Amino acid sequence: MDFNDMKKIWDEQNQQSLYAINEEALHNNVIKKKNRAAFIADRSEVFTIGSLLISSAVIIAAMIYTTQLRIAPGVLAVFMLIMAGILYGKRRKRLAWQNTFDRTIMGDLEQAIANAEYQVQISKWSKYLLFVVAVVSIVDVYSYTDWWKSLLVLGFFVVVYYLAKWEYRTFYLSQRNNLIRMKEKLSSLDR
Fold it and tell me: Among 20, 14, 11, which residue's Cα sits nearest to residue 189?
């Protein structure tokens, strides 16, 4: 006789489950996961916005200092400022809906999933942003220096892209998928 047969007999005889879930420990675990997902989303936003602002400020300062107003770096600096503004707007929206979830186990888990999904979207968005920065940088380097320097810049961006892809799959996507699996397990226990 296996465990499932024993459980079925126990349930039929006693009208109660063979095992119980410690709801307080489960809720604390869900809250910890929720806080971690919110922390990761918050740090990613702050670091991305900060790096976009600093990078565009450095480009603009370099153009002013050298008195060379080149088109590609100027366009890139403006593009990065616009992207920082868009991300700031997304951050404000996320913080607005952050506390609209129920303070139950499932509500906290849904909030953790929403933050993890948001982080997945930010990570995808950052990869596209990297592509734009890479193209503009390579074009600019190629137009003003030797071809082999452009090749080095291309190699750098290829490595960064694969590292970003690895980070996306290893951290953000797996965290979201684990939270979704946890929600599915908890939902199946309610039935």
Answer: 20
3-state secondary structure of 2: coil
pLDDT at position 92, please? Answer: 96
Q: Tell me how many degrees the CA angle 83-67-140 measures, rounded to the nearest 5.
A: 50
CA-closest candidate to residue 51, choices 92, 81, 94, 76:
81
Sort 77 into a burial class: Cβ within 10 Å, 0-12 / 13-18 / 19+: buried
Residue 17: CB atoms within 10 A of its CB come to 11
The domain total for the chain is: 1
pTM of the model: 0.77
Say if CB 47 and CB 79 are below 8 A apart: no
Q: For residue 166, what are the domain limits?
A: 25-190
> Residue 8 falls within a domain, yes or no?
no
Flag whether 18 is in a domain.
no
Is residue 22 predicted with pLDDT exceeding 80? no
Band of pLDDT at residue 21, cut at 50, 70 and 90: low
In-domain check, residue 17: no
For residue 127, give both structure tokens. 């990869």
Q: Decide if 2 is inside a domain.
A: no
For the cut 70, the answer to whether the pLDDT of residue 191 exceeds it is no
